[in-house]
Every structure is written in C-alpha cells, then in structure tokens.
C-alpha cells in the first residue's frame, strides 16, 4: 500500500540526490496523452470491456517550480479517466 511506497522512497533517498527545478507538467502531459489514446481506442471499439482508470501518484519533496503549468495541464486532463495525487514528503513548503 501507500506505506510500502513511502518506505521504498525513504530507502532509495540515501542513494540519490534530489535537485531542482522540479517540473511535473511534462509528466502529467505524458500520462494524459497515454490515457487519451486509450480512451480514443475504447471509444472507437465501442466496448466497455477495455475501459481503464489511471492514477498518477507523484511523491515530491515540495520543491515544485511549474505550478501554473501544472494547473493548466490538470484542467486539460480533468475530463479523462484519471486522478493525479500529490504526496508531499520532507520539510519543503508544498
């Protein structure tokens, strides 16, 4: 579950170096494009068997530099079958 994800984050944290800028809008755009292509295929097939729902989980230390772009791509993706969840870890201002 979520605790396993957080535990894995803490375990790998000692092996990597976090740095900025941190831009999440390209990641959200990429996932939204992937979801959008799946929606188009499903609509084309007119079948509910292949419908999927996607959850994008972003774990961040709070140092986000593209908040305005994140707002825009989130609005653009709001009609898609997906959720975007941000989890802030660390002491930075989120």
Primary descriptors:
alpha+beta, 15% strand, 3 helices, 94 residues, single chain, 47% helix
Helix-strand blueprint:
Elements: H1 2-13, H2 25-45, E1 54-60, H3 67-77, E2 82-88
Parallel strand pairs: 1-2
What does this structure look like?
The structure is a single chain. Helix 3 (67-77) links the parallel strand 1 and strand 2 (82-88). The protein is α+β, with helices and mostly antiparallel strands and 94 residues long. A two-stranded parallel ribbon has the order 1-2. 47% of the residues lie in helices and 15% in strands. It has helices at 2-13, 25-45, 67-77; strands at residues 54-60, 82-88.
Summarize the structure.
The chain is α+β, with helices and mostly antiparallel strands and 94 residues long.
Strand order of the largest sheet: 1-2
Q: How far is the first residue's CA from the last residue's CA?
A: 23 Å
Strand tally is 2
Domain count = 1
Query: What sequence of helices (H) and strands (E) makes up the elements?
Result: HHEHE
- Note the beta-strand portion: 5-15%
Uncertain stretches: none
Mean pLDDT: 82
Please outline the major beta sheet: 2 strands, parallel
Radius of gyration: 16 Å
The DSSP helix count reads: 3
Content-based structural category: alpha+beta
